[in-house]
Inverse folding.
């Protein structure tokens, strides 16, 4: 037994070292930095929780936190809707050229966030954007919409771009789930006279419940961490309308040179994500028990 | 019997000697990493620097040059991260507004340039005021500049002609400017004037011009208090700029998102007739729409013509490993001929006075553009500039979005600036 145990430790050592170097060391280093004031020449002074106090007293932080949750929640819900819709479409038995559609629907996922952000920035451009041009041509609008230049539209615009970039992940996950549902369940429901809608509610959704749950939680965490797309499209503007925690951390560190406050904000973000993960683990356990 | 080991021994000794020579040679050779955002400006600029590096390497066989392009927007993030990581570039080109934050992490270059035999010549050729305002601290010189740019009114002569305006007579007063802008505006195709409403360093220097233009400062020169609303003229100047968008409609829609990229593209495609820009904007516009440069011109902004004496600095990080070789490379880049070549290729007004006098520079309509020395202002040299700039853009965007009147926005910002400066 001891012999096997030694081998066990030996085998997990590379993974342990990699995780320590890539995750634990930066995390501890960031936590330490959050308790220090870092001068412009990178000399440090221990300041206790002063950085946290300053961050929590900053109204932009609270606005950013609100934006982050709004962005993540709406993105996740809409991504689930689009992903499920696309998965159902791809699973539709009468669909022709299935492989072609699968490739096309997967395309957004193959594009980097930065490239997607740049593409959407041009699509929504007030002067050159194809979105305004199209809407003006069909008479849906009488003057260009300020998609990224007004507080009313900017957050909605980055959410749409994010949904477009993210839905294939949930689509793939749910498509795999749909294909695993035994056909007999649908046939039995049809024999019992269930309409397509009732079959969807009583057969499809219960079978997908676990995957929907896993997918939405993961997508939510991805969305809370979203940086590239927003930074490229709006840089958090106008007037912090699209500022989220990752862009705020970037600004504190690399525009204001307030590394301590940036680290404190990142630690607070970590706490938020850890709370989300704990809730996720608990709910996952419940969902598994119900399976 | 002994011949093989003896031969083997001789071979091993030969291999060891060769390796030792190789190691010694490798140790003697120094590689200078040179970071510069200008390398991304155009292929021609890159080729110019590649040629300069080759020439330098021929003259200094023990020094190799590695050119490291940086993105303009990410230049400071890249530089600071590399310095903090202990792997800084040996030489970097920075923009003068960056210097306020950089002084503590740079090493003085005066002694190094003196050792390289270039200091006296450069002190004689460069503007002492520019060096004192931007690059000298506590009597030590922390960088030398290769160009001094002054933004002016960059305009499209062809659009002037189409609007029935004299292309050789740009507006001289603000009333005239508004009249021109209205006549040049034909939405949604063309707009008279572009305002830099998106947050960025290049936008900030254009907004500072609004205050300087009215004889005001954004913050006091001793960096202790806000000064942007000291006089009624300051508020009037800011309100005038906002009104171009909100009242007169001569600015393209979506102004709060209008960054340099957006404006230079619109200008290159003749969707915008006038904007505030430097000589190099003509080259960048021409890169997007080849041939357009023939229709562009540069003139002073109306009335005072106030603008920022923008420029660059070649600097050496404090923790860079090869300062002596770095100083030699800087001296090479600061030579008269390279200063002229950089000016001609990049449309960057040479910093050296003997380079400005060069007939090739004088023959260039963009590079011969000059402003009165009292119209040139230096940026505010403080490590808090990032926060102050944030407050500036909050004010600008608040007024542009109509959240506050220009005066209200200025009053709100005044309090915020004083808070930042008091920290």
């Amino acid at each position: 037994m001891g012999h096997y145990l030694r081998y066990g430790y030996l085998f997990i050592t590379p993974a342990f070292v990699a995780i320590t170097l890539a995750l634990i060391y930066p995390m501890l280093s960031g936590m330490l930095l959050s308790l220090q004031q870092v001068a412009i020449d990178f000399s440090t002074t221990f300041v206790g929780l002063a950085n946290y106090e300053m961050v929590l007293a900053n109204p932009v932080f609270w606005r950013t936190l609100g934006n982050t949750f709004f962005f993540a929640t709406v993105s996740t819900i809409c991504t689930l809707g689009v992903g499920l819709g696309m998965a159902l479409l791809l699973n539709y038995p009468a669909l022709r050229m299935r492989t072609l559609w699968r490739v096309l629907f997967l395309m957004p996922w193959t594009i980097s966030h930065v490239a997607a952000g740049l593409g959407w920035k041009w699509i929504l451009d007030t002067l050159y954007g194809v979105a305004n041009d199209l809407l003006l041509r069909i008479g849906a609008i009488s003057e260009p919409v300020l998609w990224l230049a007004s507080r009313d539209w900017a957050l909605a615009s980055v959410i749409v771009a994010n949904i477009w970039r993210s839905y294939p992940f949930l689509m793939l996950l749910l498509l795999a789930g749909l294909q695993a549902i035994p056909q007999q369940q649908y046939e039995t429901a049809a024999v019992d006279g269930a309409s397509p809608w009732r079959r969807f509610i009583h057969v499809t959704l219960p079978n997908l419940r676990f995957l929907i749950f896993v997918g939405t939680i993961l997508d939510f965490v991805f969305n809370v961490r979203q940086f590239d797309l927003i930074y490229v499209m709006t840089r958090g503007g106008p007037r912090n309308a699209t500022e989220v925690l990752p862009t705020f951390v970037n600004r504190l560190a690399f525009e204001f040179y307030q590394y301590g406050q940036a680290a404190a904000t990142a630690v607070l973000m970590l706490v938020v994500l850890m709370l989300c993960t704990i809730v996720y683990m608990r709910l996952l356990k419940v969902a598994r028990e119900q399976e | 019997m002994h011949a093989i080991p003896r031969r083997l021994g001789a071979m091993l000794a030969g291999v060891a000697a060769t390796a030792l020579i190789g190691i010694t040679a490798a140790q003697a050779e120094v590689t200078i990493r040179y970071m510069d955002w200008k390398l991304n400006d155009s292929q021609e600029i890159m080729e110019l620097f590649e040629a300069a590096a080759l020439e330098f390497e021929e003259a200094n066989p023990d020094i190799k040059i590695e050119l490291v392009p940086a993105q303009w927007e990410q230049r400071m993030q890249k530089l600071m991260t590399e310095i903090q990581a202990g792997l800084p570039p040996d030489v970097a080109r920075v923009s003068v507004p960056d210097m306020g934050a950089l002084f503590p992490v740079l090493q003085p270059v005066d002694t190094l340039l003196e050792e390289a035999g270039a200091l006296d010549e450069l002190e004689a050729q460069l503007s002492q005021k520019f060096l004192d305002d931007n690059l000298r601290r506590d009597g030590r010189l922390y960088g030398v500049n290769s160009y001094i740019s002054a933004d002016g009114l960059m305009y499209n002569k062809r659009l002037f002609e189409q609007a029935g305006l004299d292309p050789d007579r740009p507006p001289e007063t603000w009333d005239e400017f508004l009249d021109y802008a209205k006549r040049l505006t034909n939405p949604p195709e063309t707009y008279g004037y572009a305002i830099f409403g998106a947050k960025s360093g290049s936008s900030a220097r254009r907004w500072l011009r609004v205050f300087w233009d009215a004889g005001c400062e954004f913050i006091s020169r001793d960096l202790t208090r806000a000064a942007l609303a000291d006089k009624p003229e300051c508020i009037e100047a800011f309100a005038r700029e906002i009104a171009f968008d909100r009242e007169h409609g001569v600015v393209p829609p979506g102004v709060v998102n209008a960054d340099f990229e957006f404006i230079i593209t619109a200008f290159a495609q003749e969707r915008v007739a006038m904007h505030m820009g430097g000589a190099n904007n003509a080259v960048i516009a021409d890169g997007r729409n080849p041939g357009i440069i023939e229709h562009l011109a540069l003139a002073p902004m109306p009335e005072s013509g106030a603008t920022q004496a923008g420029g660059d600095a070649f600097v050496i990080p404090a923790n860079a490993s090869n300062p002596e070789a770095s100083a030699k490379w800087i001296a090479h880049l600061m030579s008269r001929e390279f200063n002229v070549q950089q000016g001609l290729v990049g449309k960057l007004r040479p910093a050296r006075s003997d380079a400005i006098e060069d007939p090739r520079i004088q023959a260039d309509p963009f590079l011969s553009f000059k402003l009165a020395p009292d119209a040139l202002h230096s940026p505010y040299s403080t490590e808090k500039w990032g926060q102050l700039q944030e407050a500036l853009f909050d004010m600008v965007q608040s007024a542009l979005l109509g959240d506050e009147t220009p005066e209200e926005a200025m009053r709100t910002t005044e309090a915020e600036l004083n808070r930042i400066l008091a920290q």
Summary: The CA atoms of residues 217 and 280 of chain A lie 7 Å apart.
